[in-house]
Write a structure and sequence with these properties.
1 helix; 0% strand; structural constituent of cytoskeleton; cytoskeleton; microtubule; SF-assemblin; cytoplasm
Length: 136
């Protein structure tokens, strides 16, 4: 129960003070609510920016992974091509070497046959000469 403001000057002062506190409290609550709303909006903006950044980062990661896969496939293809060429060169050289070895083997066979024939003829000649010498 408040007294009329004219009746009691102290009561009037208290009432005015009470109204000031109520006004201050209302202003404080309003400013706090505005600050919370403002901070919430800033937080939402930051969250949205982070989501965009995450999306961009994921896209970049995917692009890099695809680029690395393509690069790896290209290198594997080049390595396979080089390996095929080296194998072809190696096989060609082994074939040439085998041909040379076969030719050398044939020549050695011919030399051995000629040597054997010559030796037999030499022995035969010596035997024939010995026989002639023995008759004489």
């Amino acid at each position: 129960p408040s007294l009329p403001s004219n009746a009691n000057p102290t009561g009037a002062k208290l009432g005015a003070l009470r109204e000031k506190f109520t006004g201050f409290q209302n202003q404080w609550e309003t400013e706090t609510k505005h600050r919370i709303d403002r901070d919430g909006t800033k937080l939402d903006t930051v969250k949205e920016s982070m989501m965009k950044l995450e999306s961009t980062l994921n896209s970049e990661i995917k692009r890099r992974v695809e680029a690395n896969k393509a690069l790896q496939a290209m290198f594997e293809s080049q390595i396979s091509s080089i390996q095929d060429r080296l194998e072809a060169i190696f096989i060609e050289r082994v074939d040439k070497l085998q041909t040379s070895v076969d030719t050398l083997g044939d020549r050695m066979g011919t030399v051995e046959r000629d040597f054997t024939l010559t030796r037999e003829q030499y022995i035969q000649d010596i035997e024939d000469k010995n026989a002639v010498v023995a008759k004489d």
